[in-house]
Amino acid sequence: MDKEGALLGLAALSQATRLDTFQLLVRCEPEGLAAGEVARLLAVPQNTMSSHLAVLSRAGLARAERRSRSIIYRADLDRFRALTLFMLKDCCGGRPDLCVPLIDELAPCCP
């Protein structure tokens, strides 16, 4: 990931509804959710949610696929991983012991 891609991703997540939307999509992996269901669960008007989903899609953090008459959105975890790694690249400045607390805190979420 380059700086421009990171800025696009961070900008997309810097708005409360989009952050809530992305977190919801992550929780619903790998099935994803229909756009209307995302709007309903977050109590956001459907046209507003469409705009938020479009921003997340342009940033590469969400993907849409048509299933019958619904558009199903999924979090793009590979893109999010790339964004996270971009942010943490050389986080320890050559001192791996500085990264241990961060790695320890991330590890319990995925046993």
TrEMBL record:
<keyword id="KW-0804">Transcription</keyword>
<dbReference type="InterPro" id="IPR036388">
    <property type="entry name" value="WH-like_DNA-bd_sf"/>
</dbReference>
<dbReference type="InterPro" id="IPR036390">
    <property type="entry name" value="WH_DNA-bd_sf"/>
</dbReference>
<dbReference type="InterPro" id="IPR011991">
    <property type="entry name" value="ArsR-like_HTH"/>
</dbReference>
<dbReference type="Pfam" id="PF12840">
    <property type="entry name" value="HTH_20"/>
</dbReference>
<protein>
    <submittedName>
        <fullName>Helix-turn-helix domain-containing protein</fullName>
    </submittedName>
</protein>
<dbReference type="InterPro" id="IPR001845">
    <property type="entry name" value="HTH_ArsR_DNA-bd_dom"/>
</dbReference>
<feature type="domain" description="HTH arsR-type">
    <location>
        <begin position="1"/>
        <end position="95"/>
    </location>
</feature>
<keyword id="KW-0238">DNA-binding</keyword>
<dbReference type="InterPro" id="IPR051011">
    <property type="entry name" value="Metal_resp_trans_reg"/>
</dbReference>
<keyword id="KW-0805">Transcription regulation</keyword>
